[in-house]
Write a structure and sequence with these properties.
single chain, alpha+beta
Length: 76
Protein backbone atom coordinates (compact mmCIF):
# COMPACT_ATOMS: atom_id res chain seq x y z
CA UNK A 1 0.00 0.00 0.00
CA UNK A 2 2.86 2.38 0.74
CA UNK A 3 4.33 1.90 -2.74
CA UNK A 4 1.08 3.03 -4.37
CA UNK A 5 1.18 6.22 -2.28
CA UNK A 6 4.74 6.86 -3.42
CA UNK A 7 3.79 6.29 -7.06
CA UNK A 8 0.82 8.63 -6.74
CA UNK A 9 2.99 11.33 -5.21
CA UNK A 10 5.61 11.07 -7.94
CA UNK A 11 2.92 11.40 -10.65
CA UNK A 12 1.73 14.66 -9.10
CA UNK A 13 5.10 16.27 -9.74
CA UNK A 14 5.01 15.57 -13.48
CA UNK A 15 4.00 18.41 -15.74
CA UNK A 16 1.59 16.55 -18.02
CA UNK A 17 0.68 18.04 -21.40
CA UNK A 18 -2.43 16.67 -23.12
CA UNK A 19 -1.45 14.18 -25.82
CA UNK A 20 -3.12 16.14 -28.61
CA UNK A 21 -1.03 19.19 -27.71
CA UNK A 22 2.25 17.33 -27.09
CA UNK A 23 5.14 18.66 -29.19
CA UNK A 24 7.46 15.72 -28.48
CA UNK A 25 7.15 12.54 -30.53
CA UNK A 26 8.25 10.23 -27.70
CA UNK A 27 7.47 10.36 -23.97
CA UNK A 28 9.29 8.84 -21.02
CA UNK A 29 7.67 5.92 -19.22
CA UNK A 30 6.36 7.90 -16.24
CA UNK A 31 4.49 10.38 -18.43
CA UNK A 32 3.15 7.71 -20.78
CA UNK A 33 1.85 5.75 -17.80
CA UNK A 34 -0.12 8.76 -16.55
CA UNK A 35 -1.79 9.17 -19.96
CA UNK A 36 -2.73 5.47 -19.97
CA UNK A 37 -3.83 5.47 -16.32
CA UNK A 38 -1.38 2.65 -15.59
CA UNK A 39 1.60 2.27 -13.30
CA UNK A 40 4.96 2.96 -14.90
CA UNK A 41 6.01 -0.56 -13.93
CA UNK A 42 3.18 -1.96 -16.07
CA UNK A 43 4.66 -0.27 -19.13
CA UNK A 44 8.11 -1.59 -18.24
CA UNK A 45 6.67 -5.11 -18.04
CA UNK A 46 5.04 -4.65 -21.46
CA UNK A 47 8.44 -3.69 -22.83
CA UNK A 48 10.28 -6.55 -21.15
CA UNK A 49 7.80 -9.27 -22.10
CA UNK A 50 6.93 -7.65 -25.45
CA UNK A 51 3.25 -8.43 -24.87
CA UNK A 52 1.62 -5.04 -24.34
CA UNK A 53 -0.76 -3.22 -26.65
CA UNK A 54 2.06 -0.87 -27.71
CA UNK A 55 5.83 -1.23 -27.96
CA UNK A 56 8.38 1.31 -26.83
CA UNK A 57 11.42 2.61 -28.65
CA UNK A 58 14.75 2.39 -26.89
CA UNK A 59 16.80 5.57 -26.76
CA UNK A 60 20.23 5.26 -25.14
CA UNK A 61 19.02 2.32 -23.08
CA UNK A 62 15.85 4.06 -21.91
CA UNK A 63 12.27 3.39 -22.92
CA UNK A 64 10.36 5.93 -24.95
CA UNK A 65 6.70 5.69 -25.86
CA UNK A 66 5.52 7.16 -29.17
CA UNK A 67 2.83 9.82 -28.77
CA UNK A 68 1.09 8.50 -31.89
CA UNK A 69 0.82 5.00 -30.33
CA UNK A 70 -0.44 6.46 -27.06
CA UNK A 71 -3.09 8.49 -28.89
CA UNK A 72 -4.28 5.44 -30.82
CA UNK A 73 -4.53 3.40 -27.65
CA UNK A 74 -6.35 6.12 -25.67
CA UNK A 75 -8.77 6.96 -28.48
CA UNK A 76 -9.48 3.31 -29.18
Amino acid sequence: MESSKVAAKSDQHLNITPLDKEARTVLPTAEAAVHLNRAAQTLRIWACKENGPIRPVRINGRLGWRVSDLLQLVEG
